[in-house]
Amino acid sequence: MLATRIIKYLIIGHSAGGIGAAEAIREVDRVGTVTIVSDEPYPAYSRPLISEYLAHPYPVERMLYRKPDFYENNDIQTLLGEKVVKVNPTEHTVKLESGPTLAWQKLLLATGGTPIIPRMEGSQLKGVFTFNKLDDAKAIDGFLNQHRRNVRAVVIGGGLIGVSVTEALVKRGVEVAIVEMKDWILNTILDEEASALEAKALVQAGVNIITGHTSGKINSYLAGEVSGVTLDDGRALPCEMVVIAIGVRPRLEVIAESGIKINRGIVVDRRMMASSPDVYACGDVAEAYDFVYGENRLTPIWPNAYEEGRVAGLNMAGEPAEYQGGTAMNALKYFGVNIASAGLVSPPDDSYETLINSYDGVYRKVIIKNDKLAGLVFTGDIEKSGIVYNLMKDGINVSSFKKTLVADDFGLASLPEATWRARLAKPTAESVVITSVEKPEEAVIGD
Amino acid sequence: MKQVYIKEQVCIGCHLCEVYCRLKHARSQDLVKAYKKESPRPLPRVRVDESGIVSLSVRCQHCVDAPCIRACLTGALSRDPSTSLVTVDEERCIGCGTCSLVCPLGVPKLDATKKKMVKCDLCQDEEIPVCVANCPNEALLYAEG
User: Fold this and answer.
1) Is the ipTM of this complex over 0.95?
2) Is A303 close to B145, i.e. CB distance below 8 A?
3) Which CATH number is B64-119 given?
4) Of the four, A78, A124, A132, A372, which is 20 to 30 A from A385 by CA?
5) Which H helix or E strand runs over A357?
6) B69 touches chain A (CB under 8 A)
7) Which fold has domain A128-246?
């Protein structure tokens, strides 16, 4: 049965993608109802800030992604603390766990990701946490407040989430060991050299990094409580808490049996439209176009979710838009080390060219294929990484100036004139005459 | 909105735009102190990129379609509705550098002491931005777009 009132734009998910869509819809359509449903009880907040929340703690008000008057100013309705249990694309409805069925004209699936919990003995114990949303940070905060002294933690997984929770825990005085299955931490976003710079900062902060190993099981001596972790080589790490941070997977439960096409995530086209009419998807749950790989894949990062949500929102409101594509892209500042990386961080085979400039803690690297950039890693001074990232995004041929990309004096002027000119604002005022740069006349020496 | 345009054909790379920008952001109103004494050293929000005879005085262009606003992880970057400027809310900025990574000019700069990103605000308290006012070659123009 259809509900009496039909929501014009229904958005499931209240993070970067959902907000990106809501903002884009409101640029086009000021009156159609926009409703955001989220199982979290908060206004949209910045998920990357949950580590700040855990570390300081940090007031939730400072974590808000948009100003408090955002919903009122944009006439956006929210259904918070409400969980969608079923999406029916044929009937254009969704069913809420609390009972009601909502009818919609256009639907956005921005449900995000959910932490992967391995099948491991002890993973259900009290004292085992994930670190994906504000309530996770609150749960760890509560645990630490109860155990005031000498807490030891094992963080399983040395990716972004693992390192981010480690930083917060260290600031709270917790003794942390990170267990990473691969050979270096942050291996999906950093190469070995940049990872080593980050690892050095972690070790200096007292973190024990164990690479090349996995956790076999979580031990418990006192009923229900964590007492330690046993690694795959039999080594025991005593601890009071464990954070599982081995990755996220798309949160697809709500579309089970809906007939919406799924690969690893929801399959979408360049308009962010899913396989069912009037259904769109974005963010960690969707497989959007990656311009480095030249194919659709999961790139679960915040800025891409926003861009994808924006494209979805424009299309939902009837303004045709295509997603230009994104790629894995991260700027980090964990433990005071500034690193920016994007695209590939290690060349997958010999057909790629790698250029590196490395000395005294400075490390800049670019990866090139067929005269175009395929990846970058900048550490320390990351200011000009944006110039390189955009050359990669725009698919600019860099063959004539590739050596300058990692040079100390690299800058906008290193690019060909047509390229730097295209990046600078041009006045329309008639008083300004833009002429091309002329070569200086040859100095005449002698007679 | 008004913004700074560069006439690179008459820019000789003297870096005075950087010098006066640094002074503008110094606690002391003294050039020598700003350069040699102040700690932390004040940061200029403009940068001169040079290669051969080309020198470009680069600063935030307050893009109409600003990638930094969209990429910001915390919502610290936004467009001021009254001035149309792209501004950083220091309360919410965590200094991660994502804005710099997506900026085609790579202009947001990390203030390492405050751990916040900083960028040009076109000297809102001045009639003409100090870089423009002090450019000896009139290579910078402050004009409506």
Assistant:
1) yes
2) no
3) 3.30.70.20
4) A132
5) strand A353-359
6) no
7) FAD/NAD(P)-binding domain (3.50.50)
